[in-house]
Automatic annotation (TrEMBL):
It comes from Ancylobacter mangrovi. This is Microcin C ABC transporter permease YejB. One of its GO terms (biological process) is microcin transport. CDD domains: TM_PBP2 (cd06261). It is a multi-pass membrane protein. Residues 136-351 form the ABC transmembrane type-1 domain. Its main location: membrane.
Amino acid sequence: MLAYIVRRLALMVPTIVGIMLVSFAVVQFAPGGPVERVIAQITGEGGNATDRIAGSSGGDFGGMQSGAAAGDPVNSKYRGAQGLDPAFIHQLEKQFGFDKPAPERFLKMMWDYARFDFGRSYFRDISVIELIKEKMPVSISLGLWMTLITYTISIPLGIAKAVRDGSRFDVWTSAVIIVGYAIPSFLFAILLIILFAGGSFFSWFPLRGLTSDNWEQLSWGARILDYFWHLVLPITSMVLGAFATMALLTKNSFLDEIRKQYVVTARMKGLSERAVLYRHVFRNAMLIIIAGFPGAFVAAFFSGSLLIETIFSLDGLGLLGFESVLNRDYPVVFANLYIFSLVGLLVNLISDLTYTWVDPRIDFETRDV
């Protein structure tokens, strides 16, 4: 098993490089980069935008907004740059690192990322790693609790539905699951706000943030209660939209195993239903559930909570990534992608190792990666 883990870890390097290379190449052809965004601010807002950019970069851009030749090749690269001083455009390119060739920029980026040096945000006066740390508590809270609660509800419910297939319990729980599957989580969120967050009925839960403003002054017990008080509505809306698929997947997986010949044989040998279910069926049926865990966990952690973060005013990684793409803040975009890919690959490896824990008959050591 150790050799398999080493091979998987070694293969993560070219995988991440390939992901970053494709994304970097796509960005090079995407219109409206950071230089164009700054030019649009300047041409649309005049000197105020220039003052903000000069202050954030430490450069002196005064007097560089005019005097460009009409056919200057530098200005012709950027839409709306006509009439701006070429020296100003060169300064912008240097500030954002676009004064170097694309291959050199990519190699430098990968070398920095290998050392977890993600640079600074283009448009926020903060390093990328500090910005991610600042947003991490929200994403950890939403992703972790949503995944744990979803699996805690879905797996026992799916097993119970498989054992009682066709019963009244199976029918009415299926109706609940269909409703949960059909209605998006953000609609559940809006409904919960209307009902319980000062919409039209009750005002039991807060609408903004992960903690209250006086959180620092609270005792530890009160802090924990305050934290979960803020999480009740967003987590409930996410779980209601996520548990349906997992419950049905669990039920169908267990039904497929229960109908196989080895289960009939085990029953004929006199084993109890509990022994048949948990000693024989469980480890086979759970494999497909485990296989779906990495994707569900990573999606919930990084991107699955974007709308929920927006609705409940929770400033997490999902909202950060979305805003960074809109603002062409490439250091933040690529850092999110790098961390997302790395965590996804590591979770996939953990998922494979969990296979061997659930079913010791699986031996990855004798298989190709």
